Amino acid sequence: MTLEWINQSIAALNTVTQAQGLERQGQLTKPPGSLGSLESMAVRLCAMQGTHKPSVDNAQVVVFAGDHGIAAEGVSAFPQVVTGEMVKNFSRGGAAICALARQNNAQFEVVNLGTVVDLSAMENIVNNTIMAGTSNFAHQAAMTQEQLSQAMGAGKAAVDRAAANKVTLFIGGDMGIANTSSATALAAWATQQSVTSLVGPGTGLDAKGVSHKGQVIEAALAKHAEAMTDPVQALRHVGGLEIAALVGAYIRAAQVGMAILVDGFITTSAAILAAKIQPEVVNWMFFAHASAEPGHQAMMASLDAETILDLGMRLGEGSGAGVALSILKSACVTHNEMATFAEAAVSEKSV
Fold first, then answer.
1. Which of 21, 181, 194, 334 is the most exposed place for a label (fewest CB within 10 A)?
2. What is the value of pTM for the model shown?
3. β-strands 125-127, 169-175: how paired?
4. Hey, what domains does the chain have and what are their CATH numbers?
């Protein structure tokens, strides 16, 4: 598989329905701006979906899972087998994102890109195994070009499945022990900020563990610096299978004109790489929540974007997006179902 498809044009926002949405907001029975960000979210969805009455009721959650060779460097508080164990938990519907998907009546699937333990066929799990986790990027590139192409292609395929099911909002989730190391490395490359200012505890490292993790990432970035000449090569050298799939998914969603709800730290590292490849991808993105990981704020600043929520979450899986989906639904229902001043026979503001 080649990566030529990632350079295909991004869908254009519909400025006509955007204007219609903005006009409707001005007619609803409320002071202008009184619903705050709910108003701008609804108008943005009008532009994305080509309608003056948008909906995110048909949402799709796809959790991409893959192991990371960098785990061998002792950068995670949890053992690597947890990735595979959590995939089984997803299949049984026992994870936080499973509960949130059910709450929102969202479609749910997991794409397994490769774990250190072999996993048998399971319900809700799409087996796209590429390798048994990435190579250890402390010593070599995380992936070959072909493996990277396959991972990004798995993200594209997930969005194409969603598009075939008339999905109106795409949520990508992540699962992979040690993936905050990959995300931090990518964040440092993308923002040109120091690893020290970005590295965090991930699954719960203490101060000594965070320091060690930062040193491992710094050394790896120095090792691969000359080869990381563009976002694709940065992703190949220090990324993860699931992060690469997320990058592919985000680009594809923007190409087919599907709204995107980005979760937290890991997924934002994918979002910023997708934006480095295709800057207009950001036009199709909402950002769910402010992750408790230190590097997230720097990436959001680099993207010039704001989050919907700040709840101190740092679980991953797409869980923050699962919560923020309820907010987007509120934006739609208030926009679509409130009466206008004319309909309600309510007097408007005096000039």
1. 194
2. 0.97
3. unpaired
4. 59-327 (3.40.50.10210)
**Region 175-183 average pLDDT:** 97
Distance CA 32, CA 162 (A): 35
**Of all residues in the chain, what percent carry a pLDDT higher than 70?**
99
Residue 56 C-beta-side C-alpha neighbours within 13 Å: 33
Mean pLDDT of all residues in 30-34: 96
How far apart (Å, rounded) are the C-alpha atoms in residues 237 and 15? 39
Q: What pLDDT was estimated at residue 203?
A: 85
The CA-atom distances, in angstroms, between 146 and each of 58, 142, 149, 182 are: 33, 12, 5, 19
Q: And the tokens for 315?
A: 């679980």
Distance, in Å, from the CA atom of 231 to the CA atom of 271, rounded to the nearest integer, reads 11
288 CA to centre of own chain: 9
Residue 242: other Cβ atoms inside 10 A: 34
What is the set of active-site residues?
Answer: 317
- Collapsing DSSP to helix, strand or coil, 340 comes out as strand
Residue 136 has pLDDT above 90, yes or no: yes
